[in-house]
Specification:
Number of helices: 10
Helix content: 40-55%
Structural class: mainly alpha
Strand content: under 5%
Number of strands: 0
Order of helices and strands: HHHHHHHHHH
Largest sheet: none
Distance between the termini: 48 Å
Shape: elongated
């Protein structure tokens, strides 16, 4: 099954996150089942709520802040557990690269080995996977946005996908930039019939360049699309 991600593109291109909504509490919630009376007495002694941590709703992704709000049931938990919960909440709404996940954890007062342990654990759960993220970004760029290889490579780098993973994913991408450039140019050429040939060619070439089709490839695709549009409509660009 292919999932989509938000690659920071144009409005309306939001994609579904890599991971499913969890049916259970995040990894950090490890309170044993039962023992309600013991928990109630413990909370009463602290003057807090009678709810134990295991009674918190599993889906707390509505929280605006990645850290637990002051006075919440998370107050007093070790920073490592808070950090792990925050990362899992973030992963419910948006896929992250390993580098992005480390950045998300940097706001917590954690030792490097704790960060490494959390990353390793979340990778083991399948919620962090640079290879899968690369595939999704390539699909979004090539199939949905009509981008060329250069633009897609820039997106992978910006999202922090490991270089070796990005190179492997790009190597599997079909070498069809010319075909995709022409397909994109065809979708834009029709709206340029009122322009003179040079202006239409310059604008269409610029649009192709912004999607990673540079140099002669962009020029060739733009010319071909404008020629096709003029022939099909019986109108020649001035």
């Amino acid at each position: 099954m292919v999932h989509f991600v938000d690659d920071g593109g144009e409005p309306g291109d939001e994609l579904a996150p890599v991971i499913p909504l969890f049916g259970s509490a995040p990894v950090g919630d490890r309170s044993p089942a039962g023992g309600a009376d013991v928990r109630n007495r413990r909370e009463s002694a602290r003057g807090g709520s009678s709810w134990g941590r295991s009674s918190r709703p599993a889906d707390d992704s509505h929280l605006a802040d990645e850290r637990a709000p002051r006075g919440s049931a998370d107050e007093g938990e070790p920073p490592r557990e808070l950090a792990e919960k925050a990362l899992l909440r973030k992963l419910r709404t948006r896929s992250l690269s390993v580098r992005e996940a480390r950045t998300a954890l940097s706001g917590f007062d954690l030792a490097r080995e704790d960060v490494d342990d959390i990353i390793e654990h979340v990778e083991h759960l399948g919620y962090l996977d640079d290879a899968q993220l690369a595939e999704q970004l390539i699909h979004a760029g090539s199939d949905r946005k009509g981008q060329g290889r250069t633009a897609i490579a820039q997106t992978l780098s910006k999202r922090g996908v490991a270089r070796e993973v990005a190179d492997a994913a790009l190597a599997a991408l079909p070498d069809d930039d010319a075909e995709r450039a022409l397909e994109f140019a065809r979708t834009k050429a029709g709206s340029m019939r009122s322009l003179d040939r040079d202006t239409a060619l310059r604008r269409l070439t610029g649009q192709l360049a912004r999607r990673g089709y540079g140099g002669s490839l962009a020029m060739t695709a733009a010319r071909a699309a404008l020629d096709e549009t003029g022939s099909a409509s019986g109108v020649r660009f001035r």
